[in-house]
Amino acid sequence: MKIGTYFGFEAAHVLPHHPGKCSRPHGHSYRLEVVVEGPLQQGGPAAGMVMDFGDLKEIVRRSVIDQLDHSDLNATISNPTAEEIAAWIWGRLEPALPSLQRVVLWETASAYAAIER
């Protein structure tokens, strides 16, 4: 079974190697999808769940959103393309979410980068 949730954050960046307008400072309203997979828990407070949505949201907020929201992405990622940001997010989440299956980072309403196990 898979479960997932969405997050939003605002951030600015510059693509230092880009020959076009993205080489100038600009920002995006990012949308992030995080999906985990696992068996339904049989007992305890999360019985019938893969994991509690609240726990998933807290891990993503603490590991990713708190650092990236309203930030200059270049201070964290040297070449913050959508692909590099998605890879950075995966690297931050995987230790806390070993059942991580998918990260999708929407940079605009029609453009995204995705990583799947």
Note down, in words, how this protein is organized.
The structure is a single chain. This protein is of the alpha+beta class. The chain has a domain at 1-16 and 37-50 and 70-77 and 101-110. The protein has two helices and five strands; from the N terminus they run E-E-H-E-H-E-E. Strands 3-1-2-4-5 form a five-stranded mixed beta sheet. The longest helix has 16 residues, at 53-68. The mean pLDDT is 97.
Describe what is shown at a glance:
Helices cover 24% and strands 35% of the residues.
- Tell me the strand order in the biggest sheet: 3-1-2-4-5
Largest sheet: 5 strands, mixed
Question: N- to C-terminal separation?
Answer: 14 Å
Radius of gyration: 15 Å
Mean pLDDT: 97
Strand content: 35-45%
Write the SSE topology.
Elements: E1 2-13, E2 26-37, H1 53-68, E3 71-72, H2 82-93, E4 100-108, E5 111-116
Parallel strand pairs: 1-3
Antiparallel strand pairs: 1-2, 2-4, 4-5
List keywords for this structure.
117 residues; alpha+beta; 2 helices; five-stranded mixed beta sheet; 5 strands
